[in-house]
């Protein structure tokens, strides 16, 4: 969790202006994909609740595309952090 929160997201929310969350939450970006280090984002609690309501059905299946909810700018940030997470994971396996 420290890797995700501190190293990938620098202790800040994925949402611009990237505030330091008072109650940080880590949640899957795309609920249709498995829980992996490159499919997790940091939100403040209220934003995480909104993400869960908008993007997840009660069955845990994707209800909406997160890009439609948060926009292209946030989706691009998530892609960058995901790529960074994959590089860290590859380096760690060496």
Task: Give a description of the structure.
The protein is mostly helical and 94 residues long. It has one domain. Helices cover 48% and strands 11% of the residues. It contains 4 helices and 2 strands. It has helices spanning 2-8, 45-55, 66-70, 72-93; strands spanning 24-28, 40-44. It has a two-stranded antiparallel sheet with strand order 1-2. The longest helix has 22 residues, at 72-93. The relative contact order is 0.18.
Give me the side-by-side strand order of the main sheet. Answer: 1-2
Number of helices: 4
Structural class: mainly alpha
The low-confidence parts are none
Q: What is the global morphology?
A: globular
What is the C-alpha radius of gyration, as a whole number of Å? 13 Å
Report on the biggest sheet: 2 strands, antiparallel
- Helix and strand sequence: HEEHHH
Strand content: 5-15%
Overall pLDDT, averaged?
A: 89
Fraction in helix: 40-55%
* Count of domain modules: 1
Name the features:
single chain, 94 residues, mainly alpha, two-stranded antiparallel ribbon, 2 strands
What's the structural blueprint in terms of helices and strands?
Layout (H helix, E strand, L loop, with lengths): L1 H7 L15 E5 L11 E5 H11 L10 H5 L1 H22 L1
Antiparallel strand pairs: 1-2
Task: Sum this structure up briefly.
With 94 residues, the chain is mostly helical. 48% of the residues lie in helices and 11% in strands. It has one domain.
